[in-house]
Every structure is written in C-alpha cells, then in structure tokens.
C-alpha cells in the first residue's frame, strides 16, 4: 500500500513512513542567519548562538567566570573543578 504526501506528492510505503517524512521534511526549523535546516527548535537555537555569540550557560564554580554557548560545553568544563 502506497500513500502520498499531501504537501509534496512524495510516495511512502506506509503511513508510519509518511509520518517520518513529514517530521523530517515539512516540520524543519530554519536558522534565521544562514538557512541551515534542523529537525527541532532546540538544535536550531543552539546553532544560532554560533552566529550571535550568545553564551547563556555560566559556570557556577566559585571564582570561575567562564560562559558557554552550549550545555555540553559547560558540562565538560565543569569537570575541571572536581
């Protein structure tokens, strides 16, 4: 059984495959600076920080004033204090 996408007429083998198609193709978030496509808003927001220089993740260790654009960067940095 083949089903067609209502938005682009792409063919899919099942409704499940069509759902995945819709999520990956038609619900993407675009970076407002470079147009790069992301499958979720969080990943897009993380990427956009590379354009803006925004670093909202601050180290909470006493005497440390380092800030980071991404959560993972802060987590990796935090290990130097322990």
Automatic annotation (TrEMBL):
Keywords on record: Metal-binding, Nucleus, Repeat, Zinc, Zinc-finger
Xref: SUPFAM superfamilies: beta-beta-alpha zinc fingers
Cellular component, GO, one term: transcription regulator complex
Domain C2H2-type: 29-56, 57-82
Domain of life, source organism: Eukaryota
GO MF assignments: DNA-binding transcription factor activity, RNA polymerase II-specific; RNA polymerase II cis-regulatory region sequence-specific DNA binding; zinc ion binding
Listed InterPro entries: Znf_C2H2_sf, Znf_C2H2_type
Protein's name according to its UniProt entry: C2H2-type domain-containing protein
Source organism of this protein record: Dreissena polymorpha
């Amino acid at each position: 059984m083949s089903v067609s996408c209502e938005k682009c007429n792409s063919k899919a083998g099942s409704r499940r495959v069509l759902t995945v198609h819709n999520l990956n193709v038609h619900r993407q978030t675009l970076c407002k600076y470079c147009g790069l496509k992301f499958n979720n808003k969080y990943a897009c927001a993380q990427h956009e920080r590379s354009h803006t220089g925004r670093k909202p993740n601050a180290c909470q260790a006493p005497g440390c004033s380092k800030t980071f654009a991404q959560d993972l960067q802060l987590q990796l940095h935090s290990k130097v204090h322990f």
